[in-house]
Design a protein that fits this description.
The protein is mostly helical. The chain contains two helices and no strands.
Length: 66
């Protein structure tokens, strides 16, 4: 009986440890890959037609004011 309880506790501790290890590895991976994804997302956004047209309108507006 006590052997079964001990095995259950060890399995529970190992399972919790595995989840913590996976969570920590995801945090490390996200810290590595997220800046690269954000850089690509920004590059795509800056090349969209609506962004370019908005910047042109801003420049025309600034030129007319000055």
């Amino acid at each position: 009986m006590t052997k079964a309880i001990l095995i259950s506790i060890v399995c529970l501790v190992l399972t919790i440890g595995a989840f913590l290890l996976l969570d920590y590895s995801f945090i490390l991976w996200a810290g590595f890959i997220m800046p690269k994804r954000e850089k690509v997302r920004r590059k795509v956004f800056v090349n969209t037609k609506s962004y370019i047209e908005g910047k042109k309108q801003d420049l025309i507006h600034y030129r007319l004011l000055g």
